[in-house]
Amino acid sequence: MGFFKLTKTGIAIALSAQLMLSTTAVTMAQAEMLGTDAAISKYAQHSDRSFLMGELQREEVRAQIVALGVDPAEAEARLAALSDAEVASIVTQMENDSAGADIIGTLFTIFIILLVTDILCLTRIFNFTRCVR
User: What is the pTM (predicted TM-score) of this model?
Assistant: First the structure.
């Protein structure tokens, strides 16, 4: 009878140890430093995609899409199929290609044109220029 009691106790201890080791190995957390850029980019990707979906929902955009012969549902499906990098590229292009955004370049070009016309004696706008004649 002592042998069976010793065997039951040994098996119980072995099973308890195995259970403890297996549960601690599974529930151990893996931690690492998460940079601010990584955390922000994760949420920026979702906001970029929702921004583009919102732009597709606008009436003017939908009317233009239909006028070009594209089904709005198909456009939404294709937008959903884009990768995060492609969505970010599209949003960057939309931000950089806004109409009339380069006002300084436009003003500089006008100034140069007027300056050259003053030097060639075609106009007389600036007092600090002299004609070449």
Answer: 0.43
